[in-house]
Amino acid sequence: MIDNNIRLLPKILPIFPLPGAIVLPKGTLPLNIFEPRYISMVESVLGSHRIIGMIQPRGDTNKKNVYPVGCAAKIIAFSETSDNRYLIELKGVIRFKVLEELNSIDGYRNIRPDWQIYQKDLNINYENVNMDGLLNQLKIYFNNNNMNVDFSEITKIPNEQIISAVPQICSFKPNEKQAILEAMTEKDRVEVLISLLKMNLSNEDENGQETLN
User: What pTM was computed for the model?
Assistant: First the structure.
């Protein structure tokens, strides 16, 4: 299976540059595909390995530039709408480094990925990470943002689902999400999340003090 054998991963990878959107290994990401070039991309991979590369554009003005690291994800569910869109669900498989960009096909971009540095992603395990610290910071974040969340239900969710949901729920900047993605180990990733949540709280406190003054 592609999911656990690096040799079966594609040598040429179509990429979907999308600001503020990351998927983590073992995490999931829902997407609404409506641009013709990306509809072509989805239809192409559905007929083969079902793998696309999620990657963020780098910088605000030139979407041609992308970060050097993205995450390959497999389409695990899809449906076609009456207005010819695709609703897809991705599951993160393994991160990649961009070696070079190749010629585009049907308008979508392709790269040659380097999988080797991230091959441990195929056996990633989120069991021995600081979930208590992460959940404590999440409680503070949700309370400060008036978000009503039942934490008794959250604790029933697998760790990888919680960890992958945090960047989607919280108002992190694209470069902060990139730091989450590029964290080398599972433990590092959770510590980055905790630090970002603390920074968010600190920024809110400073803004509140400025308003009072």
Answer: 0.90
